[in-house]
């Protein structure tokens, strides 16, 4: 029998929670104890009473949640939480370590076993715990982009879908994975002109069928990126290299050549960003200008729809949470998909992509 802690998320404007009451009930039915920090689920619409009814214990502090065998979160620990982890802790959450040296060093010092949702990977290369949030982030990226293009938000005043006699807006998407695909679906649904760039020819072929030939699909190379980016009304960065820092594909010089008031949304910002002028923003202060181009770098876009996002996330994570609760660290030996999620253990960097990001650690 294990004890599982669910702390309240304290990242700016983050309202998701690591477990739903239904998820708690599943753990309790297996004989485990679950301690949920008070108000942890309120932002996603789950009351303390619902957790109590599911069999959880409500604890009054983050310390009470972090002091358990297994800590289940949504976002990476914040600086005030670093010292709450110990060598006895198993931390299961999104980490995105390659973009954050300070956190990486802090988690190494903690000696905790740190498993990142974003690097849990199947034999076929799928990322089952990243996929549901990528679906949401991709859809929101286009929604946000359409909103920021309005003049009142600082954009160039373009309606993505256009109207009879007026050209549709042009959406350029870097990366044809889950984020890029979902962003394209929404943009096409709005009536926008859509261009997707990717280096995977097989994926481009799949997208041709999936999107019924409605999007322009181009092989990603510097000359093609330069031409399409400078024509974009909305540029969405959706590049992913599992566990690694995102490659920079768009230079400041290209950004300066975009139409004034164009919008850039870099969904890859939680892995460092794929656009050189990107920086992390928040839901509270989502945008900034760089040479007249409106940028958005919210690293937790799905936090805008916490009820949907929490349920989608827990649907994906719960089988792994149940395994970790039952077997502890041994679960990593029993399940190679889960084992690929291990980033840090006993003070050492384990994941190869993170080691590559910090070769001196």
CATH class of the largest domain: Alpha Beta
Q: In the residues, how many domains can be counted?
A: 2
Principal-axes shape call: globular
CATH homologous superfamily (4th level) name of the largest domain = NAD(P)-binding Rossmann-like Domain
Report the C-alpha radius of gyration, rounded: 21 Å
Q: What is the count of helical runs?
A: 13
Protein model, in words:
This protein has 361 residues and is of the alpha/beta class. The chain folds into two domains: 3-120 and 306-357, Rossmann fold (3-Layer(aba) Sandwich), CATH 3.40.50; 131-303, 3-Layer(aba) Sandwich (Rossmann fold), CATH 3.40.50.720. 34% of the residues lie in helices and 17% in strands. The chain is built from 13 helices and 15 strands. It has helices spanning 21-29, 48-54, 62-66, 101-110, 131-148, 178-190, 201-210, 222-229, 252-256, 306-327, 331-334, 336-339, 352-357; strands spanning 3-6, 33-37, 57-59, 70-72, 90-93, 113-116, 170-174, 193-198, 216-219, 234-237, 263-266, 287-290, 293-296, 342-345, 348-349. The chain has an eight-stranded mixed beta sheet, with helices on both faces. Strands 9-8-7-10-11-13-12 form a seven-stranded mixed beta sheet, with helices on both faces. Helix 1 runs parallel beside helix 2 and helix 5 (131-148) runs parallel beside helix 6. The protein starts with a strand and ends with a helix. 53% of the residues are buried.
Summarize this entry quickly.
This protein has 361 residues and is an alpha/beta fold.
Descriptive labels:
34% helix, eight-stranded mixed β-sheet, 361 residues, Rossmann fold, 15 strands, seven-stranded mixed β-sheet
